[in-house]
Amino acid sequence: MTTTAWRPAWSELPVDVRELVGTCLGAPVRTAAGQAGGFTPGVAARVLLADGSRAFVKAIQADDESVGVYRNEARYAALLGADVPTPRLRFTAQARGWVVLAFDDVDGRHPDLRVPAEREAVLSALGRLAAALTPAARAGVPTVEAALAPLLTGWRQYAADGPPADLDPWSSHHLARLARLEAGWAAGTAGDTLLHADLRPDTMLLTPQGEVVVVDWACACVGAPWVDLVLLLASADGVDADRVVRTHPLSRDVPDAAVDAFLCALAGCFARECRGPDLPRSPRLRGFQAAAARRTLAWLARRTGWRWSSP
Questions:
Q1: What are 125-136's pLDDT values in tens digits?
Q2: CB–CB of 59/71 below 8 Å?
Q3: Most C-beta atoms within 10 A of its C-beta, which of 61, 62, 130, 224?
């Protein structure tokens, strides 16, 4: 597994926190295998219990700047019913200055959307996910506009403050146009579906039976179901994204203008975020964001048809 974040080892948890995990899960932890994926810096471990059962445990210090992500994940995961393809939240607790979450462990790997059968399994799962999560359980869940508005302002900020010197020529040439298109992103994204809002291949698991399970619900919000599809495509290589949007039940009837505006806003977000300072505890995040910026910009350029000759 590729290391994406610096994570403390299971052994670095205080002894009584490790014992609490075993108590809450019903048997002592015998072994723990650390997991290196993801972009947050807490403990992540697949644990084997003395009774032979397994669980997936996440933990972070309660005063860590990322603790809100873990608290949100616990809150939103508790809203998900048995018909949602996601690991069951076993418990959440706080002890000795650590916030701990435990889920059912899933035997699986991240899907590869370049493989047709795996791509089709993922796209089918998105349809089932939307059906299970519409209408949303809204208690304490923000709308997609409220959740994403602080992030989706990149082009407008560059238009107001001046673009960075290394902004690509196409974006620099069309900056005013991008800012105008970005400003309308929220209008088409309203809806009553509980969205994951951080769908990527690495927030999904493909089981040996071919089922797709969705993990890491910390960014959940309420909006139109096609939003999750576009977010997934924005992080996927080797996929004909426009063909998927034209044919998938979640997006085929969505106006092009709505997709374009949201995609534009995503591209601006990635373009700005990838230029932020390096994060020592998440050393691959900026690289992921830079790749997403290139991918979404290329997709947006194809969709809009904007050329150098376009003012």
A1: 999 999 999 999
A2: no
A3: 224
Could you tell me which residues are beta bridge partners of residue 56?
46, 103
- Per-residue tokens: 258: 């709505």
Q: What pLDDT score was predicted for residue 3?
A: 43
The DSSP secondary structure of 280-300, one letter per residue, reads TTSTTHHHHHHHHHHHHHHHH
Inter-CA distances, 24 with 21, 212, 280, Å: 5, 27, 33
pTM of the model: 0.93
Q: Which residues pair with 101 in a beta bridge?
A: 58, 92
**98-111 per-residue burial string, b: 16 or more CB within 10 A, e: under 16:** bbbbbbebbebebb
Closest listed residue to residue 76, CA positions, set 22, 133, 21? 133
Query: DSSP label at 109?
Result: B
Judging by beta carbons within 10 Å of its beta carbon (0-12, 13-18, 19+), is residue 66 exposed, middle or buried?
middle
Q: What is the pLDDT of residues 136-173, one digit of tens each?
A: 977 789 999 999 999 999 999 999 999 999 999 999 99
- Phi/psi for 133 (5° steps) reads -110, 20
